[in-house]
Specification:
mainly alpha, meiosis, SYCE1, coiled coil, 273 residues, two-stranded antiparallel ribbon
Length: 273
């Protein structure tokens, strides 16, 4: 508001007085000239005396006008003084308001700087807090990853142990199955051998019984051939071959050299799967 105030453009009283005096002198000269012209005119016409009263009235009017002009000039001077005082007061108020405005602007600038510093500090604090939270989250993730890795290693060790135990159990189970199969194979071979031995003994007893009868060479040879055929029918080759000597009427049993190989082949376990 103070910045918008402008000083009033007023002329000093001396200039005003000179202007008014010049204007009054101009008017007086003009009126004087008018009076002189009127006097000359009356002199020519010969009627000067009747116009004296009119001249006196005009002079009185001029004096009153001069007095009125002087009063108006005094009032104008007083008004100018008053306005000049008001102008000085307004100029002083303007200077005071400018000083207040400057102080307010300086305070506002300081306050803005303080606010900017506080905002910058708050932003730094927020950034620091965010960084702290991120570091905390990262540390938690690292700890969790380490725990999971450690747990995974522990689980892997347990799995390896279980696999080793399972492998041992499987090998033991397979060995048990193999032993059971071998035992069954041995029992089967034993039963087969016992049956063959029993059959061979029965045949041998039959042969001995037949040989104990009256000797006949043809019949003994036929019996010997029939016995060989029956033995080959049962097992290819029996556990023993019977050789009969017709002239001595006696028989002897020779062990078959291929029998142990056949038995060992029967006792072999099946291939592991």
């Amino acid at each position: 508001m103070a910045a918008e105030l402008e000083p009033l453009k007023m002329e000093p009283p001396e200039v005003v007085e000179e202007a008014e005096e010049a204007e009054g002198q101009t008017k007086s000269l003009k009126m004087t000239e008018d009076l002189l012209a009127m006097v000359k005119k009356l002199q020519k016409e010969g009627s000067l005396e009747p116009q004296i009263e009119d001249l006196i009235n005009r002079i009185n009017d001029l004096q009153q006008a001069k007095k009125k002009s002087s009063e108006e000039l005094g009032e104008a001077q007083d008004l100018w003084d008053t306005l000049h005082k008001e102008l000085d007061s307004l100029n002083g108020e303007k200077v005071h308001l400018e000083e207040v405005l400057s102080k307010k602007q300086e305070a506002l600038r300081i306050l803005q700087l303080h606010c900017q510093r506080k905002e910058s500090g708050a932003q730094k604090q927020n950034m620091l807090q965010e960084c702290t939270e991120k570091i905390s989250i990262y540390n938690s993730q690292v700890a969790e990853n380490y725990r999971q890795k450690k747990l995974g290693l522990h689980v892997e060790e347990q799995l390896e142990n279980l696999m080793g135990q399972h492998k041992d159990l499987w090998e033991f189970h397979m060995l048990k199955q193999r032993l059971a199969w071998e035992i069954r194979a041995l029992q089967s071979s034993k039963e087969q051998l016992l049956a063959e031995e029993k059959l061979a003994r029965a045949k041998l007893e039959e042969v001995e019984r037949q040989l104990s009868l009256p000797p006949e060479v043809g019949r003994a040879r036929a019996v010997n051939d029939g016995l060989k055929a029956e033995l080959e029918k049962f097992g290819g080759q029996g556990p023993a071959q019977i050789h009969c000597i017709p002239k001595d009427e006696a028989c002897k049993v020779e062990a078959d050299p291929e029998l142990p190989g056949a038995l060992s082949e029967d006792l072999e376990p099946p291939p592991e799967q």
